[in-house]
Design a protein that fits this description.
It is a single chain. The chain is built from 2 helices and 10 strands. It is of the alpha+beta class and 276 residues long. It folds into 2 domains: 1-51; 78-267, Porin (Beta Barrel). An 8-stranded antiparallel β-barrel has the order 1-2-3-4-5-8-9-10. It has a two-stranded antiparallel sheet with strand order 6-7.
């Protein structure tokens, strides 16, 4: 072989070897960098997969379990007090065409002598306007009110975790005012219109009796929502015109319907057995 041919062959072999070495180096570099590029993705997915394997956090029930709360209800309290909004339907005169719807308050306190029998004191007030029949004095709907102070007994009929049913009877006095807002006779300014002039009872103190009951819906061992309806009997007098009745001391019976809704609180609880 000529010297030039050998030189060309050597250059071709050297170039081929160089290219083969370069290809091998590129392939090894690609294999080494591929796991490195996938590593962040694997790191990103690892916490997610781990969090999916963890149990869910416990849920917190913010609502009070009412049944567990009422399981501690006892009826061994020594005293209790009640206060609520009251309503009464009352007719301020026997001949009036319609009655008056009066609103007010009702406060009661009970001292339990036994688990079923208690002594109760009661204070009430009712306020509103009474419609009267047409009259020569121009009086339309005068303001009337009455206050009652009563005492008697309360008997517990039924008692349970959720509610209690009571009956009560009380007697006392009622003081009614029917002259407020009547004014004077427009034809005779010096004459003050009297309740009897417009068919109402005279102001004064009267006998009052009430028979009713109460439903106590327990919210806790000490607190309850009370609904208390009553039949109320009063004895106001003096109805009639100045010439219609010779004596203002004549009395008549008045039937009222009363109801109140409010909050009962029991205190000085005992440590005896439960109601069951």
């Amino acid at each position: 072989m000529s010297k030039s041919f050998r030189m060309c062959r050597g250059m071709v072999l050297l170039l081929g070897g160089t290219m083969l070495a370069a290809a091998s180096f590129a392939q090894s570099t690609t294999q080494n960098t591929t796991p490195t590029q996938s590593t962040p993705a694997a790191q990103n997915t690892t916490p997610t997969s781990r969090s999916q394997r963890l149990p869910p956090p416990p849920t917190i029930d913010v609502n009070v379990n009412q049944n567990e709360t009422l399981s501690a209800v006892r009826y061994d309290n020594k005293y209790e007090i009640y206060g609520g909004a009251g309503f009464s339907h009352f007719k301020s005169g026997p001949a009036l065409a319609e009655g008056a719807n009066l609103g007010g308050f009702d406060v009661q306190g009970t001292w339990w002598l036994t688990k079923r029998l208690g002594a109760t004191g009661n204070l009430r007030g009712y306020y509103g306007t009474q419609g009267v029949d047409p009259n020569p004095y121009g009086v339309g709907g005068p303001f009337v009110f009455e206050h009652m102070f009563l005492g008697g007994a309360t008997y517990r009929l039924l008692a349970g975790e959720h509610a209690a049913l009571n009956a009560h009877g009380m007697v006392g006095g009622a003081y009614g005012v029917f002259s407020s807002g009547l004014g004077n006779d427009p034809n005779n300014p010096s004459y003050a219109v009297q309740p009897r002039d417009v068919g109402m009872y005279n102001n004064g103190l009267a006998l009052a009796t009430t028979i009713g009951g109460s439903l106590d819906l327990n919210r806790s061992p000490r607190l309850a929502l009370r609904i208390s309806p009553d039949w109320i009997l009063t004895r106001y007098g003096g109805y009639g015109t100045p010439s219609g009745i010779p004596s203002p001391s004549i009395t008549r019976s008045q039937n009222e319907f009363g109801i109140s809704v409010g909050i009962l609180y029991r205190f000085k609880m005992g440590k005896g057995p439960r109601f069951k």
